[in-house]
Amino acid sequence: MSDIEDVIDYEKLISEKNFNRIRGSLQQEGLREGVTSGRDKAFQKGFNQGFSEGFKAAYSLGYLNSLTTLEDVFFP
Q: Where is the Essential protein Yae1 N-terminal domain (predicted)?
């Protein structure tokens, strides 16, 4: 092989190594982002459900508390 062909082959080898390294790091980062996004969505869903149930329970208790307070005011 000539010197030029050796240089071209070497440059191709280096380019392929760099490409594979960059691709690997991008795949790892994409996986991390996907896992984080899925976890955040699951937490948000649980929070929304818990918040809704907690609000309903607190509203009901507040309503009952107000009724007992009114009973104390009007019927001492």
A: 32-64
Using a cut of 0.70, tell me whether the model's pTM lies above it.
Answer: no
Q: Computed from CA positions of residues 62, 55, 50, 31, in that sequence, does the dihedral angle turn out positive or negative?
A: negative
Please give the Cα distance from 56 to 50 (Å, whole number). Answer: 10
Please state, in angstroms and as integers, the Cα–Cα distance from residue 10 to each residue in 2, 17, 33, 56, 76, following that order.
Answer: 12, 11, 35, 69, 96
pLDDT in tens, the chain (76 residues): 688 898 889 999 999 999 999 999 999 999 999 999 999 999 999 999 999 999 999 999 999 988 888 777 777 6
What is the distance between the alpha carbons of residues 61 and 63, in angstroms, rounded to a whole number? 5
